Amino acid sequence: MSGSLQVTQTQTQMQMQTQTQLQTQTQTQMQTQTQLQTQTQTQQHQQQQQHQQKQQLQKHHYECSCFLNTKSSVSKQSFTSSKTTSRRLKTSVKTEKVQEVAKLRVQSLRAKRTYLAMDTDKEVIGYVIPVFRASHEVVRGLMEAQEEHVEEGINYVAMRNLFVREAREAVDVKVKVEKKTRTMHVRESAERIQLSKTMEEWSEFRKKMNPDSLTHLPEFIVKPRGQTVWEGNTVKLHCTVAGWPKPRIAWYKNNVLIDAKAYSEKYTAESNYNMHSLEIKNCDFLDTAQYQVSALNVKGESSFVSTIVVKRFQEKEEAGPLEAKPHGFCAEHGVTFETTIIDKFEVAFGSEGETLSLGCTVIVYPTVKKYQPEVVWYRNSVPLKPSKWVHSHWSGDRATLTLVHLNKEDEGMYTLRVNTKSGFDTYSAYVFVRDADVEVEGVPVAPLDVRCHDANKDYVVVTWKQPAVEGSSSILGYYIDRCEVGTHHWAQCNDTPVKYARFPVTGLVEGHSYIFRVTALNMAGVSRPSRVSEAVVAMDHSDRGRLRAGPLAPWTGMIKFTEEDPTVGFVPGEPSDVVVTEATKSYVVLAWKPPVQRGHEGVMYYIEKCIAGTETWQRVNTSMPVKSPRFALFDLAEGKSYSFRVRCSNSAGVGEASVSTGEITVGDKLDLPSAPGNPVAIRNTDTSVAVLWGASKVVTHLVGYYIECSVVGSDVWMPCNNKPVKQTRFVCHGLTTGENYVFRTKAVNAAGYSHSSHDSDAVVVKAAIAVPGRPTGVTLLEAVKDFMVVGWTAPANNGGADIRGYFVDYRTVKGKVVGKWHEMNHQALTTTTYKAENLKENVFYQFQVRAMNMAGVSKASLASASLECKEWTITVPGVPVGLHVLEVRDTSVVVLWEPPAFEGRTPVNGYYLDLKETSAGGKGWKAAHEKANKKKYMKITGLKAGTSYFFTVRAQNLAGVGKASAVLGPIPAQTHPGTKDIYVDVDDDGIISMVFECSEMNESSEFVWSKNYETITDSSRLTVVNEHGRSRAIFNSPSLEDLGTFSCVVTNTDGISSSYTLTEEGLKRLLDISHEHKFPVIPFKKEMSMELLEKGCVRFWTQVEKCSSACQVEYVFNDVLVTQGKKYSMNFDKSTGIIEMFMDSLEVTDEGTFTFNLVDGKAKGATSLVLIGDEFRELQKKSEFERAEWVRKQGPHFVEYLDFAVTPECNVLLRCKIGNVRPETEITWYKDKIEIADDDEDAQKIERQEGELTFNIGKISKSDAGIYEVHLRDDRGKDKSLFNLTDAGYQTVMNELFRVIANSSCEIKVLSTEHGIVLHSTVTYHHEEMRVGWLQKDAKIAASERVKSGFTGEQLWLKINEPTEKDKGKYTMDIFDGKDGVKRVFELTGKAWEEAFEEFQRLKAAAIAERNRARVVGGLPDVVAIQEGKSLNLTGNVWGEPLPEVCWTKNERELVSDSHIKLTLEHGKFASIAIDCVTTADSGKYALKVKNKYGKEAGEFTVSVYNPDDENKEEKKD
Length: 1518
Hints:
By secondary structure, the protein is mainly β. The chain contains 12 helices and 102 strands.
């Protein structure tokens, strides 16, 4: 940054120096005029003046330099001094008294100030921005209100201060008049001419520096330069940018915007006075990229790209994925963070449309409160940003990446990077995305990676990548669809399919956003659409830059755009650089640069074409002018040549045509790539193969390569990648272990696919062989005066091949000085111990070991500790060596070891094994057993699945227990997937063998059998046969000598092994099975049985479990062979194993033993059935009965004999089923031996329906008791059936009836009455003999006047009169159903009791009120007709308790007793009314009203009084 600052300071100094020189020249001119007037100056005064000018110039330069470094606001002194520049200065000539005559002025009043800065060669090197255009009082107020914009005005103020100082100093110079020579006069004249020329140039500059034309594009004065740094260093990029308005700066990494604020620990971006920098901290290999700085303002955008290369140290082996990478110290937290990534995601496979999650557990040590590492996910080294397709999550200890709705664009190498303040750690694995199943067989799969380029106002170029699978035929072309953002309508952009994977889409609406998708077409149909592209806006590049620009306009905080009046515009100039950017059979794309002369008004373009050989130009887009400097022409004739040119137009008119492109022939310009070089397939893992191939020699704009694989002999090619890769090496995953594959590749670019390469050589999918890992645990086992015995542990990874031996190196150690390594053995050792001889006593040595297999020699182990060659005097044994494990399972493991090389004073007589969990800490060791183990192996059980353990072994002799061996582990208790156990097999010949299978073998793997974990070398007891991943150990002669633990290990695998312990009991069981196989017996699934068939036929049968087609059967009776004949018939179904023998009947001579003898190869079997004594006679009777039954059924007969049934309606039916009847068959019913004739009443109860006879007794009573019979008869025979409906039969029917009635009862309900509470239930029918009992609280209720039970119709009830609290409880109704009875229970407690009792009291009170209510009970007529003059006497009977109040009314008016009407009440029961000598006035409606506290009532009647004379008169009139 310091270098860039110095450049800027130098430029500013040169600018100020040039201005000062011009000021000085002006002053010199004024002095010359003064000298001509006075002629009194001396040469001495002239020298003194020149010296003073030099000092002033140096002072100005120093002030300018100091000014550039200031960042504070302009001081008040600057504004004060600036005021002097606006005053008018006058020139004057001073005498020797130094008297001021006039003031000087540098510029004229009307001259416009120049804003250009020039160097000494008069070259423009910068400019000064005019911020203020007002009086300084106004400026001071603006500056105080807008301090953040002071930066733009500093240069301007500095320029003014400079001119003020020059003017002040000029007037202070003393002028002396002296006589000049001719030479001096000529020189001064030349200087005046040069000054005049300079002033003219300044005038031209001032015209250009008009504020209205000051704005211009950003320009890089100092460009950032590329750098190469070592990993871990910090790098800084610098640049200086000029432009007005002030440009906005953005930094990009590989075209991805860098957010320095979000990643402040990685990036720091600064901007000071047009100087900009980007600092990248703690660089790593992934920071290698192209970094672009972009400067943007309203006039446009400029950018510059520089490359940063981060180099990685290679002095030592790169740390493995589980090894800690070097991390630096973090001063902020005072620790060094170490990162470990575990529980890693493997190579993943997904299909389009699925959701896939990747995750790792991250451990950061040590843990610092409130500090979390930065977790970043990458795909193909590009950081992933959250979107609707990508979701990342960090829980504090686990990082998860979820890919929603997978597409082929998601395929690639995914990397998890964990950044801490000390460094970083990464892990990567590939994700493959398979194509979704196609809807139509043979169609291509969807294209991928749809992108939009070169978007303008009405035009965009859409590109995509071809899919890996073309389908059943080659792809004919592609269709492009577009959809406006915010809608769901897709419109097809091309009518005919395009072959190129690139297409210009025109006709877009300016300002609208669009998304695109692509489908592929072949002979079978159209593929599914691709994933949609990112949204793109149709707009001009300059408008796009304005949208991205921030608030740059001074004072307002926002961008302001102004357009000039279009009426004052001018016709635009001609476009330039018209070229054909794309040319295919389908279209041609033109591109050009807009004209320089176009004004502020937008322009549009017209495109013209001319066919070669003619001079006629035809306008292509007459109806629709183009807004963008791009255009695609369609409908051109293939093979013809055309010329093209472009015109600009605006409101002022159409400009001149551009220069023609020259003749362009319509046709494909981009050729298909050539076929890639021959692929080479290399074994990688058990499920993957690495494929390398040569790049295509002839290819333009390569998109990538597709790799295909095929199983040898299948001729079916499958894609290995669904996203093209550009490198020429690819690892194909997901292959089947052990299969033979061939591979081929093809290149692809926008034009299409190349021819496929030649097939690779076939390769078997197996893990590749590599050099083994390092041996570990180099320790001292024994030491004597001149030799030492050292031991080590074999490497955990043998590289896929057997360890063939070891090499031991040694070096001497003297204090802290170590010597060079020397080889001790030139031939490989086959053991993990070595006796180092010819050593010097009391000298310290270090040892290291290397392992060797067929692939080479491993790297050396870590050096042992410094070991002194000194004879041991200890008495206990040394440490056991060679600890390793076999048969690792979820809950058990077998630990093996070798005895110590040094036994001590006495031989070793036992071992102790200790273990601990890895998380138990240093004091977590515990003994695996109590007593010493004399064997050199031990099986440990009871482990926790998934938990890792450490193991160590100590040896014991009579002197004591020695030191513990080197720690073995960690060993996770986890069964290897696909691991199988040894099983014992006994073949058909009785041979016993042990079998072990392994599916993960490679070419160098072998089966190694051991007994008691010692390799079997004697083949007299055991014969081993290996074939196709299976090993069979055959016992030659099994005996007690073979007891023990047999184990089998598969070499060059991940510790695949198993064991089988043969015990004495197990051996006996195996020998029994072997004997059964040597002398087999045919097993019977069913022993011989007998069953009776119709006609009394007897069937003897059995069934064997299995038999061959050669199985033979002998049928024997009482040791005599019987054959097929009249009495016997046989059948043997070998498919089911059923053997049958039939006899028509059993006779007395058939008593004895029946036997089936079977022979099937060397297997035999027999089964017998003995029929003698009572069993035979009983069977004979059954046979005769069955035969009689068969005879009976030859005529009309009863299929089901007469029986009864009770219907839900409680009707009793007698019914039977008959069979083999004809129309002429007679059917007769009898009751008590008396035939039921057709005219009898009971005949109406008989029905016949489809072979069923029914006699409907109805509601049964004792009169229906009797014996019922049905007789069948015709010429074929007869049959009868009888039913006894008396005594026991009658009671059986009644019990069934009671059962139906009892089950038809409903649940008990409660009803309240004025007398009490009634519990009742309803049945379908009530029979008088049915017994019903009621219980309260499970105690029988005794009948009383208060509690009664009974029935009314079909209702069964229990009445509780005047209930009390004692009547609460559980009530049970027990209905006899012929057996135990049916019970219905009701809980008359709680709410049920309260509601019922409350209702009872209410009804009781209402009944009392109704009984005692005042009533008129009789005695009054409805109408009384009486002759005038008569007396009327009426008496009404009244009732009420208490006695009611009585009153009489006439026409609703109460009557009072008087001389005419007399009202009386006798005994409170008889109310009378007497009207003496009635008149017509007494006619009316009368009522006797009674009333007491329970109610009231009125007895109404009508009295009509008539006059006989009036009636006679009316009759006469009639």
